[in-house]
Structures are given as structure tokens and as C-alpha cells.
């Protein structure tokens, strides 16, 4: 019997390069999972097409003549509020800052493009990453699930929305370790901002899946937004309270104890679960060296990075918060922690910062 047809996700590609538009369209067509309904070479045309086609996903380049991607994004989102926007850009410090700005304005993720034409057209890794990001965005929209996904099963889980963390910890944590990926920059910034003065009582370490240059710009953005030091640490740096440390793009961030002090362990080790930096690396080392003095937080992102580390934190006596599904751009990483029963609490984004603030202490000052 014929199988019922499933509507393919619709995609609009916006890039001033004819080669890039054609390449992306071909890859999407060959995947059999997407329907390219429109292409545009500039921001003005993209806004017109968005109003007409309302695509599920928009692939939007930052650098274009005339109206570029940054300027077009808010107008595009207004014309088609249901569209998920993936920004693309070459890897420069300027573009990293602009990409982060776009994510604060509603873009769900960013994909760095290879600098050379051959790197773009011949790299199987880039093609795989491009299709993987679109697949993860599609999954987050609720249209499809991975072919090997396990059927949902009833779990005895902590109630969603729990905000009193005190019964879940044996000591007041002094270290906050955070893992995030897709949708993370905006979500992490929200939590850190909501911490208020409690941020001064914590040493905060963040693994956000990002390439080099992007993480340094992310640290600058955090420092400006919340008014406390935020930066990429150097290997062996003694970690200070009241500072946010962002894992450098392309390098693992862990911790170790030296001469009675906790210091950063920045390394070029192999990827863990295809990730570098990896949340599991940070969480595993936090479990080993901090125990219940750490508080884990797994936020929006695709994949399962952080699940193994969350288990280690729980075994070490630390609590682990998972962001809830409704407030996550993609409930891959926190969902994996929840399904593995390693979450001490499942909390909506808006409640995470206040819950940690109530646990640690500190008012809501900036």
C-alpha cells in the first residue's frame, strides 16, 4: 500500500553568491528532506519572498551588498514569524560579532562557511554540517524525529518548573558549570543576566559549541551585558569567583587542582562525541575536582553532549539542572540528560536564573 505523503520542510536560501545558492539548493534537494521554495541574492528580495512563501527555514548570509543579513533579519522575522533562521558567514572577528548579534535578534544558529571556494564546494564535512544543522532545526520544529529515535516512554521525572533548589543540594555550590549548543548564546546570556548579584558569588564556566573567534566575541558580549568579567581562560589560569570563563572555540575546557587552587585546563584533545569543546569534558572534571560544590546546567542544543558528564556530577553529589523542552530551541542535550534520569530539576529558561540566585544568594542587581 502507498505510504501517506509527508510534507517536506520548506527552505529559502539567501546569499549574494549564485554558486552558493545553487550548491545549497542542490544539497537540500539531494537530501530528499527539504523543498527549496525560494532563493534570493539580497535582503530586500528575501523579505519579499518571506512574506509570500513563509518558509519553515531561512538560510541567511550575513555579508551581502545592499541590505545585508543583519539588517534584513528583523524585517524578515516580522514578515514570517514562524521561520527559523540559520545565519551563514565566513569566519572573521567582525562576522563573529555580527552573528552573535543576529542570535540575540532571533536567529537560531550560525554556520561558518569555508573561506575558499574549493573548501565550500569540495568539503564533505561542511556539507554534512550544513545538512545536520538544518535537520536539527527541523527536528526542533516538531515535524520529524531521527529514524533511530526511541519511542517516548513514561519516566519518573522531577516536575517541570521546580524553582527551589535547596532540597536538591548538600552544600551551597560555588561553581556553576554550563553546557549549551544551538540556541545557547541567547539562553546562556539570559541565565547569567538573571543571576543578578549571585554571579559575583560563583565561578562560572561555560561550554558553548562554537568555532574559534565566536567564543571570544561571546565572552565580550556577556561581559558587556552582565557587567562582570567574562573571557576565554588560558591553560593553568587560577579561576576567580565572580568571573565567567567561556571555553575557547575548538579547544576543550576542563579544570584541575594545583597547589590547592582550581585552575583552568585548556587542551587540544580529540573531540568527545564529535564536540570540541565538549560539555562532558568540563562536567567530568568538575565532578572529579569539585563534587557537590559544583552545580551543573544543561541548556538548549542538539545531540547528547553533557549526558555522561551529568551522570558524573550526580555521582559526585552535585545537582544538575536541565532546561525544559518548551523554552529550548532544540531539546537535544537537556532532553538526553532528562531521559537518562540525570536531571535533578527541569526548569524553564525564565526560572533558571532566579532559582540559582535563590540558592546561592544575592539580589537582582545588575
Automatic annotation (TrEMBL):
SUPFAM superfamilies: CheY-like (SSF52172), Methylesterase CheB, C-terminal domain (SSF52738). It catalyses: L-glutaminyl-[protein] + H2O = L-glutamyl-[protein] + NH4(+); [protein]-L-glutamate 5-O-methyl ester + H2O = L-glutamyl-[protein] + methanol + H(+). It holds the Pfam family CheB_methylest. Keywords: Chemotaxis, Cytoplasm, Hydrolase, Methyltransferase, Phosphoprotein, Transferase. InterPro entries: CheB-like, CheB_C, CheY-like_superfamily, Sig_transdc_resp-reg_Me-estase, Sig_transdc_resp-reg_receiver. Its EC number is 3.1.1.61, 3.5.1.44. It is found in: Cytoplasm. The modification 4-aspartylphosphate is found at residue 61. GO terms for biological process: methylation. Phosphorylated by CheA. Phosphorylation of the N-terminal regulatory domain activates the methylesterase activity. GO terms for molecular function: methyltransferase activity; protein-glutamate methylesterase activity. SMART domains: REC (SM00448). Residues 10-128 form the Response regulatory domain. Residues 167-363 form the CheB-type methylesterase domain. Coiled coil: none annotated. The active site is at 181, 209, 305. Belongs to the CheB family. Contains a C-terminal catalytic domain, and an N-terminal region which modulates catalytic activity. PANTHER family: PROTEIN-GLUTAMATE METHYLESTERASE/PROTEIN-GLUTAMINE GLUTAMINASE (PTHR42872), PROTEIN-GLUTAMATE METHYLESTERASE_PROTEIN-GLUTAMINE GLUTAMINASE 1 (PTHR42872:SF3). Involved in chemotaxis. Part of a chemotaxis signal transduction system that modulates chemotaxis in response to various stimuli. Catalyzes the demethylation of specific methylglutamate residues introduced into the chemoreceptors (methyl-accepting chemotaxis proteins or MCP) by CheR. Also mediates the irreversible deamidation of specific glutamine residues to glutamic acid. This is Protein-glutamate methylesterase/protein-glutamine glutaminase. The lineage of its organism: Bacteria, Pseudomonadati, Pseudomonadota, Alphaproteobacteria, Hyphomicrobiales. The gene is cheB.
Amino acid at each position: 500500500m502507498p505510504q501517506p505523503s509527508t510534507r517536506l520542510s520548506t527552505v529559502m536560501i539567501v546569499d549574494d553568491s549564485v554558486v552558493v545558492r545553487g550548491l545549497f539548493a542542490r544539497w537540500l534537494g539531494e537530501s530528499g528532506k527539504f523543498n527549496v521554495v525560494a532563493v534570493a541574492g539580497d535582503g530586500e528580495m528575501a523579505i519579499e519572498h518571506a512574506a509570500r512563501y513563509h518558509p519553515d527555514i531561512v538560510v541567511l548570509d550575513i555579508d551581502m551588498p545592499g541590505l545585508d543579513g543583519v539588517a534584513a533579519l528583523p524585517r524578515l522575522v516580522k514578515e514570517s514569524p514562524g521561520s527559523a533562521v540559520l545565519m551563514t558567514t565566513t569566519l572573521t572577528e567582525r562576522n563573529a560579532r555580527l552573528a552573535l548579534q543576529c542570535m540575540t535578534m532571533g536567529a537560531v544558529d550560525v554556520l561558518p562557511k569555508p573561506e575558499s571556494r574549493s573548501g565550500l564546494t569540495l568539503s564533505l564535512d561542511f556539507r554534512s554540517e550544513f545538512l545536520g544543522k538544518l535537520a536539527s532545526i527541523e527536528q526542533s520544529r516538531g515535524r520529524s524525529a531521527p529514524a533511530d529515535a526511541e519511542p517516548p516512554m513514561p519516566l519518573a521525572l522531577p516536575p517541570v518548573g521546580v524553582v527551589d533548589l535547596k532540597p536538591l543540594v548538600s552544600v551551597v555550590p560555588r561553581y556553576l558549570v554550563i553546557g549549551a549548543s544551538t540556541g545557547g548564546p541567547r539562553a546562556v546570556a539570559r541565565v547569567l543576566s538573571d543571576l543578578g548579584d549571585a554571579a559575583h558569588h560563583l565561578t562560572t564556566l561555560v561550554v558553548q559549541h562554537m568555532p574559534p573567534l565566536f567564543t571570544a566575541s561571546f565572552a565580550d558580549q556577556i561581559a558587556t551585558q552582565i557587567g562582570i568579567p567574562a573571557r576565554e581562560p588560558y591553560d593553568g589560569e587560577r579561576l576567580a569567583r565572580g568571573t565567567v570563563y567561556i571555553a575557547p572555540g575548538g579547544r576543550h575546557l576542563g579544570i584541575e587542582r594545583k597547589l590547592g587552587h582550581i585552575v583552568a585546563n585548556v587542551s587540544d584533545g580529540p573531540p568527545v562525541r564529535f564536540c570540541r569543546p565538549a560539555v562532558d569534558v568540563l562536567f567530568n572534571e568538575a565532578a572529579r575536582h569539585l563534587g557537590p560544590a559544583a552545580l551543573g546546567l544543561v541548556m538548549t542544543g542538539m545531540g547528547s553532549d553533557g549526558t555522561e558528564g551529568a551522570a558524573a556530577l550526580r555521582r559526585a553529589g552535585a545537582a544538575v539542572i536541565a532546561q525544559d523542552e518548551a523554552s529550548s530551541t532544540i531539546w537535544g542535550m537537556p532532553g538526553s540528560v532528562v531521559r537518562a534520569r540525570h536531571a535533578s530539576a527541569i526548569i524553564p529558561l525564565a526560572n533558571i536564573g532566579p532559582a540559582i540566585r535563590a540558592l546561592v544568594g544575592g539580589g537582582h542587581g545588575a
